């Protein structure tokens, strides 16, 4: 696939920055589509400025492009965002870009969706892409609607639904967990047993490359998750191993921690700690994708590389 021209949106974001470097390293020429004029990101072969809500110059932007990787969008971490904003940024912008791609005869459209298009923040059983999609919030609904828009446009597409992503530069829950692991004292988390699937940003980049290289049309959504879900003590232990420390966990009943979280107004944080979300990436595995490393090794490497 070396030398193919890929148009990438969201190249200045957490995932997009990693995709730009990973695709360039794999021999792709990457043209970044930017919303506003900025310095061309390192690794890009060119850049075009445009607004996906008003795609006036997309014909020029997509000239000669073999595939699109669309990672731009409004993140679910932006709590309080109106549903209309999610729809405009995640659904309608994706539809606009896909329609332009179809007119430009782009070969494949790879959309960075989310596991939240498949399920809520937790799930009782294993989440599989063959299960009915049942998003529970505005963000997830906007991502699922974007996938449905792609199916209507009539081009070769694939939507990747990653679970919680970790890696250099991450913000949100994973950044908070790393800060917690860096604390110098023992943590009262030893009795949390709920498991969660994670995926490193490097493994996610590999999934994008797998989707780009697939020889046959895909035309569906694929879950992206590493195959070894961990519980909270195992995550903290892996992070602290990367920091050269012992796990340092104390077995305190989760109910007591839940009470403390409720009193502190952190009920949502406790819910994430105490519930499971395990997903399987069967579709990607069938295409030949495999993670860069185990989740334990990935978390340890993340802790080592991320500046304090």
UniProtKB/TrEMBL annotation:
Ranges in a coiled coil: none
InterPro entries, sorted: Epimerase_deHydtase, NAD(P)-bd_dom_sf, NAD(P)-dependent_oxidoreduct
Gene3D superfamilies: NAD(P)-binding Rossmann-like Domain (3.40.50.720)
Domain NAD-dependent epimerase/dehydratase: 7-219
Lineage: superkingdom: Bacteria
Protein name as it appears in the record: NAD-dependent epimerase/dehydratase family protein
Species for this entry: Methylobacterium adhaesivum
Lineage, uppermost ranks: Bacteria, Pseudomonadati, Pseudomonadota, Alphaproteobacteria, Hyphomicrobiales
């Amino acid at each position: 696939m070396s030398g193919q021209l890929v148009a990438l949106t969201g190249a200045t974001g957490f995932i997009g920055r990693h995709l730009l470097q990973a695709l360039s390293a794999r021999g792709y020429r990457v043209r970044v589509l930017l919303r506003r004029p900025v310095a061309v990101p390192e690794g890009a072969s060119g850049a075009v400025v445009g607004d996906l809500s008003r795609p006036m110059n997309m014909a020029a932007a997509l000239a000669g492009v073999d595939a699109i990787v669309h990672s731009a969008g409004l993140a679910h971490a932006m709590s309080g965002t109106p549903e209309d904003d999610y729809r405009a940024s995640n659904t309608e912008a994706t539809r606009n870009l896909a329609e332009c791609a179809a007119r430009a005869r782009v070969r494949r459209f790879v959309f960075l969706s989310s596991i939240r298009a498949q399920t809520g923040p937790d799930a009782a059983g294993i989440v599989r892409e063959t299960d009915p999609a049942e998003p529970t919030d505005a963000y997830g609904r906007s991502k699922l609607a974007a996938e449905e828009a792609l199916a209507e446009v009539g081009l070769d597409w694939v939507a990747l639904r990653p679970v919680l992503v970790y890696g250099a530069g991450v913000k949100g829950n994973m950044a908070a967990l790393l800060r917690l692991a860096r604390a110098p004292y023992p943590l009262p988390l030893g009795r949390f047993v709920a498991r969660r699937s994670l995926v490193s940003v490097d493994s996610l980049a590999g999934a994008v490359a797998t989707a780009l290289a697939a020889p046959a049309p895909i035309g569906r959504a694929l879950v992206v998750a590493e195959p070894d879900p961990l519980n909270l003590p195992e995550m903290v232990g892996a992070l602290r191993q990367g920091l050269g420390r012992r796990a340092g966990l104390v077995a305190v009943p989760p109910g007591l921690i839940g009470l403390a979280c409720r009193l502190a107004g952190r009920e949502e944080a406790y819910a994430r700690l105490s519930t499971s979300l395990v997903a399987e990436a069967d579709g990607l595995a069938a295409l030949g994708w495999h993670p860069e490393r185990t989740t334990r090794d990935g978390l340890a490497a993340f802790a080592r590389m991320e500046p304090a």
